[in-house]
Structure formats: structure tokens, C-alpha cells
Amino acid sequence: MDTREKIVPVADLRRRMGAGEWLAAVGLFDPLTAAQAARLADMQNGCGNLLAIVLDEPDTLLTADARAALIAGLRGVRLVAVARTDEWKEALAGLRVKILDDGQAERIRSREFVEFVFARQSSG
């Protein structure tokens, strides 16, 4: 599947997901690291369909669209949507979907990544 076809508006999620069981991974994915990609792949192995919800929040390293494109490139991810903080909850209400909302941990990982980069730059 073309990765661009995986990225859909939040309003289209209900129609695009259809029947079946889904796992929705919600986060910033800023940046998408190899460890996160491996974690998403592991989660996908346990369920048939993986949806990634990219949170569109200010003060991120990459734009939400750029992060969505990176996640859409992962083989196990079936759909990707960019959403503001709680917008995705309404779109998924009533669907058979298990939600993994790791937003706070994502913010911590993003901050630690920035600190790591700054530390590496200052030591060089």
C-alpha cells in the first residue's frame, strides 16, 4: 500500500477502519525513533490492525504531517491520522478499538531526545 493512502483525516477514520479489531497507538512520535518503530511492530503482531494517531501539538521538533508520513512508512501500520488533543476520541467512540495513549511518556521521550542532542553537540 502506498504510504500516502494510509494517512487519513480524523473524520474519515470510522469509514476507513470498517469491521475488525484495531489497536490505536496515540502519541507525539516526535521524533519517531527505532525503538518506537520496533514497539509499534511488536504491538501490531498482537492485533490485526494498527492505527497511529499523531497528536498535533505546538512546540514539537517536526510538524504533525511530517511525523504522520514517517509513521505511515512503517509496514505494520494500517492507518494514520493527525489529531488535536482529544479530537480522536470522538472519532473512535463506539468502535472496537483498544487504545494505547502514551502521550505523557511521549512528551518525556521527546524532551530527553532534545537534551541528548544538545549534550552531544556541546561535548563536541
Number of domains: 1
Largest sheet: 4 strands, parallel
Q: How many E-type strands?
A: 4
Unreliable segments of 5+ consecutive residues: none
Principal-axes geometry comes out as: globular
Strand order of the largest sheet: 3-2-1-4
Average pLDDT rating: 88
Number of helices: 6
**Element pattern in H and E:** HHEHEHEHEH
Please tell me how large the radius of gyration is: 15 Å
CATH class: Alpha Beta
CATH architecture: 3-Layer(aba) Sandwich
Molecular structure report:
- The chain has 124 residues and is α/β, with parallel strands linked by helices.
- The chain has a single domain (3-123), classed as Rossmann fold (3-Layer(aba) Sandwich), CATH 3.40.50.
- 29% of the residues are buried.
- The longest helix is centred in the last third of the chain and has 21 residues, at 103-123.
- It is globular.
- A 4-stranded parallel sheet has the order 3-2-1-4.
- It has helices at 3-6, 13-17, 34-45, 64-72, 87-92, 103-123, and strands spanning 22-27, 49-55, 77-83, 97-101.
List the helices and strands and how they pair.
Elements: H1 3-6, H2 13-17, E1 22-27, H3 34-45, E2 49-55, H4 64-72, E3 77-83, H5 87-92, E4 97-101, H6 103-123
Parallel strand pairs: 1-2, 1-4, 2-3
Brief digest:
The chain has 124 residues and is of the alpha/beta class. Helix content is 46%, strand content 20%.
